[in-house]
Design a protein that fits this description.
By secondary structure, the chain is an alpha/beta fold. It has 15 helices and 9 strands. Helix 8 packs across helix 10, helix 9 crosses helix 10 and helix 11 runs parallel beside helix 12.
Length: 346
């Protein structure tokens, strides 16, 4: 099978498919026993940098859940390390021991060559392809400039990302310099992933929704647009996910139309009807079961899955997904029940 004919890629291109494809955002990870075992013995970043192990963790959801795509195991912070930040993953989330403090810190950041500095990510993509042998497409990803700036400026996990929020008003030129550098880095990084074999790429702006409405245009949407444009002609579908952007769907839809972005990921805060009205069939839509729904009793979970499939049934490019990543204590059986219901839906 060519990847162009796969269920997921067809849906992302809004071509008719016999059923709704399914994959889950952040499908690998802490709720899976194979992942837990490997993580018990391996540091998180070492795991990202060991292609064989990272590939094994990437394909675990395919084996356990029978989803229609594999998302490579890595993290959005990997390119920040290549730019010059010291990234660590502690128990409470990612940290930088040298967060950016002033313009000079931003000026010295590299725009790294993706193959020289993060070639292990491309090796993971190739190693995953070797394992899946054309059965499903492989999805690459990166973080958007606003979300990556939040981490680079804050240094530790945060609810508010006050350091980045403050720079918007205090010294926007410095923030733009940082975001330009990140945007150039991310474009080259995603292009390298496509060259290594990624069959679709997803851009995560996980913290876009915390911006004020004007700042959203200038710091989230503008840079997402730049990256989507920078990937123009790369030959694979581009998926844009901006979390918390329910108040900005009109602007996102306009950008998607102008740039020709193939797919938009919806978070669980967005009512399907609203997304359908605003996006129409301009792009594929991916979403958006609340990850918490996977804790419901199984019959209730099946009902919610059907309800969501009903809501999107007239859309030519719906991809079933969660509104955000799977929560660590989620019972694996419940995720399997969810997939089973999607498979049996007609
Ligand atoms: O399916 C997959 O899990 C693919 C790999 C993947 C990871 N991170 C692995 C990971 C992907 C696609 C990401 C993206 C990512 N990373 C995002 C964007 C998506 C989103 O969730 O909004 C963000 C914001 C990050 C940054 C990050 N990495 C955080 C905030 C954390 C800690 C909290 C958490 O969600 O676990 C991480 C660590 C991380 N990245 C883990 C995994 C499997 C858990 C590490 C562990 O404890 O073993």
């Amino acid at each position: 099978m060519s990847h162009e004919d796969s269920l997921l890629i067809r849906a992302l291109r809004r071509q008719p498919t016999e059923r709704t494809p399914v994959w889950f955002m952040r499908q690998a990870g802490r709720y899976l026993p194979g992942y837990q075992k490997i993580r018990g013995e391996t540091d998180f970043l070492d795991l990202c940098k060991t292609p064989d192990l990272a590939a094994e963790v990437s394909v675990e959801p395919l084996e356990v859940l029978d989803v229609d795509a594999v998302i490579i195991f890595s993290d959005i912070l990997v390119p920040l390390e290549a730019m010059g930040l010291k990234v660590e993953f502690g128990d409470s989330g990612p940290c930088m021991s040298n967060p950016l403090r002033d313009r000079a810190d931003i000026e010295v950041l590299n725009i790294p060559d993706p193959v020289e500095s993060t070639g292990f990510v491309m090796d993971v993509i190739r190693a995953v392809h070797e394992r899946v042998q054309g059965k499903v497409p492989v999805i690459g990803f990166a973080g958007a400039p606003w979300t990556l700036s939040c981490y680079a400026l804050e240094g530790s996990p945060s609810r508010t990302f006050a350091a980045a929020q403050r720079l918007i008003y205090e010294s926007p030129g410095d923030l733009h310099l940082l975001m330009e550098k990140i945007a150039d880095t991310v474009i080259a990084y995603l292009r390298a992933q496509v060259e290594a074999g990624a069959n679709a790429v997803q851009l995560f702006d996980s913290w876009g929704g915390m911006l004020g409405h004007e700042a959203f245009d200038e710091f989230s949407l503008h840079y997402c647009r730049r990256i989507m444009e920078g990937l123009d002609g790369c030959g694979v579908p581009r998926i844009l996910f901006i979390r918390g952007a329910g108040n900005h769907l009109d602007k996102i839809a306009k950008m998607v139309e102008e740039v020709g972005v193939e797919a938009v990921g919806l978070d669980e805060m967005t009512p399907p009807e609203q997304a359908l009205t605003i996006f129409g069939d301009r792009c594929a839509l991916q979403g958006n079961l609340p990850p918490q729904a996977l804790f419901a009793p199984q019959e209730e979970l099946r009902r919610r899955v059907r309800e969501l499939l009903d809501a999107f049934k007239d859309h030519p490019g719906h991809v079933f997904n969660l509104g955000h990543g799977i929560l660590p204590p989620t019972p694996v059986e419940n995720v399997q029940v969810g997939v089973d219901e999607i498979r049996n839906y007609s």
